[in-house]
Amino acid sequence: MQAVLDAIQQFGVPLVLFGVLALVGGAVAAARRGEHGALLPATWRRMLPRIGGYTAAALIVYFGWAALAAVPDLTRTSIGWKQSSEATTKASTDAAPVRQFGPSVAGLTVRTYTRTLTLPPYLVQRIGSSGVGVLAPYLSDPSAENVLRLVDTFRHSGSDVVFTRDVTRLDEEPIPFASSVISARFHRVGARAYDLRFEAQYAFRNPRPDVLKTRFAFPLPETGTIQDVQVSVGRDLVPQPADSGAYEWTGELQPGEQRTATVRYRTPGSRTWHYDFGSRRRTVQQFRLDAATGGPVKFLRGSLQPTAQSGDTIQWVLNNVVTSQQVSLSFPADTSAQQCYLQALGALPVGLLLFAVGSLAVGFFRRQFYGPDRLCLALVGVTFGLGAAAVLSEYVGALGGILLAVCLTVLLAGAALGRSGVWAAAPAALMPAVFLSPHHSGLLLLGLVLATVSLAGRALRRSGWREGLVP
Asked: What is the pTM of this model?
């Protein structure tokens, strides 16, 4: 389409303009030597104003074509300014990418560890002057968070000193999840932005034959805003995150007892979404993730491949999985609507040319051409109406702006040429609108052509045009 427009603009319109100017020049020359010609000078003097008027109409078509051909470039520039601007009139829907780490569950066990060191006399003297910190490279950190009790003892053994440290710690033993069922629903709200509704259920049980103190921790994604957060384990609600930023639950599980943790939240994001099993390898006996993407997505390199995909719904089902991979989705920009809109604007000059040809065809079939003043006024109105599409689209969207421009174009053409001008303007104004469809523009264009030919045929039969040609 763009190549055709460029060819017509480069060769077609200048040739038509040259032909009209040549016709005017020939008419003027014939008028000056009318006494030697077949036509009388008075006849040419009556024809010259009409020829001048039609020349003006051709100039309006030429300059109107140039003006409408510049509309797509101006629109692209406007779109670029909006995308690169620091502030906009509407709140931006873009946000940071969302990376969700999987939760962890562990059994808490209290254990006491003993470390014994035999110290020579010179090291004992250093301890006396500098403290027990001299032995730090050989001992565990007493300030660690999981250290519950620390006891240091010294005893003599000949000339040496035996140092003993008893450390009582709260150790975590990872427990595999019995099942992880996750639902991620994405509502697309921008070029690459989305609104995520996350819901997950994590089931875990006590694998030991005795009572086990258990801790479940769910880390929230590091994103700007998280709404409607609900975290519960069984009937216990976790109201606030811990100092680590994760929602933590601690409780006792009876032998073989199972609990289910439910997590819900909503957050905006853009560009990508990740679900990571965790920084450590974690075992999941049954894993299922359903993602309703709300549109086309791509998979980042290294992502876990889905096990099923149907339309915008993608599913991962894994059994007894131990992996350090992650589910990584990329949300590409949907530029098809913008491309269709620019393509429709690119067809505006053709609409003006079709109206000019259509008005001449209507005058030919009616055996009465429009006056140059009315035709010039109609061409100016049609140029203004088609050009208003870009302005109106800023307020009511691409489809609404194009359709309002069609109505305005038909109204202005009808005001200048009457009812017959409406029949010439309607197909020409509707032609750019068919390119708004990303998949069916060719079919719509064919339908518009067939409808125009059918209506023209009916009008000709009613006017008896074919009978008038028969001698």
From this structure: 0.56
